[in-house]
Amino acid sequence: MTRKLYALSGADRTRPFSPHVWKTKLALAHKGLEFEVAPVGFTEIPSLEQGTTKIVPLLRDGETLVSDSFNIALYLEEAYPERPTLFGGEGGTAAARFVEGWSQMTLHPAIGRIAIMDIHDRLEPADQAYFRQSREERFGKTLEAVAEAGQADLESFSAKLEPLRHMLKFQPFLGGVGPLFADYIVFGALQWARIVSRHRLLAAGDVVSDWFERCLDLHEGLGRSVRAA
Questions:
Q1: Residue-wise DSSP of the chain
Q2: Which positions ≥6 away from 101 have C-beta within 8 Å?
Q3: Cα–Cα distance for residue pair 176/173, rounded to 1 Å
Q4: Residues in domain GST N-terminal (predicted)?
Q5: Which among 35, 194, 207, 212 could disulfide-bond with 168, CB atoms 3.0 to 4.6 Å apart, if both were Cys?
Q6: What is the phi-psi region of residue 145: left when phi exceeds 0, alpha when psi lies from -120 to 50, beta otherwise?
Q7: In the chain, what are the domain boundaries?
């Protein structure tokens, strides 16, 4: 069976950067499932698989198409129950939903503002035009003004990690002694920043930095397969 993962990339198609795609890449590796990555730009997404999705990641697993990183993880858990669990049961699934909400409401907006010009500059010209128009409509200001405001996010970013920092005092992963999908959710956000941005968000010696390094090493160093910006 051929699995294909459509992954958002910039002009350099060897550097998929979407946080949601990285969640899914690690989830597939966690399950021990082989897959190929099909890099796409923003403006190519509406034409994927006869227009089946407006977002990536999109996974084709044989005849099955699944979009949205959390939905893909749920699908993998149900379709491959004999392989290592991504959630560790119903409680783990609920906890992962909480982690996803925290990550997307706290980390993603800050990273998006910090890295907005870095993202723009790494795109193909057609995607740059799309990205500028869509983001300036979303924010109600120019990308340059968003990036200027992102300086405050950069200064306060470490404090946003305090809940994660507290938990990692007691265990090496959010999942406990080993990683679960909750780890991949937060890893995806920080991997996004690592790949696209010149800014360094994690300080050496921080327990979060140590955790992130452990995540980079998972699954034969999958996270390190794309070098930092």
A1: --EEEEEE--SSTT----HHHHHHHHHHHHTT---EEEEE-GGGGGGGGGTT-SSS-EEEETTEEEESHHHHHHHHHHH-TTSPPSSSSHHHHHHHHHHHHHIIIIIHHHHHHHTHHHHHHTS-HHHHHHHHHHHHHHHTS-HHHHHHHHHHHHHHHHHHTHHHHHHTTT-SBTTBSS--HHHHHHHHHHHHHHHH-SS--S-TT-HHHHHHHHHHHHHHHGGGGS---
A2: none
A3: 5
A4: 8-84
A5: 207
A6: alpha
A7: 3-79
Strands 3-8 and 64-67: unpaired
For tokens 């795109």, name the residue. 123
Question: Who's near 9: CB < 8 A, 6+ residues apart?
Answer: 15, 16, 17, 39, 40, 41
**Which two tokens mark 97?**
């939903």
0.85 exceeded by pTM: yes
Residue 116: both structure tokens together: 């907005």
Q: What would the pLDDT profile of 186-201 be if each residue is shown by its tens digit?
A: 999 999 999 999 999 9
Bridge pairing between strands 3-8 and 36-40: parallel
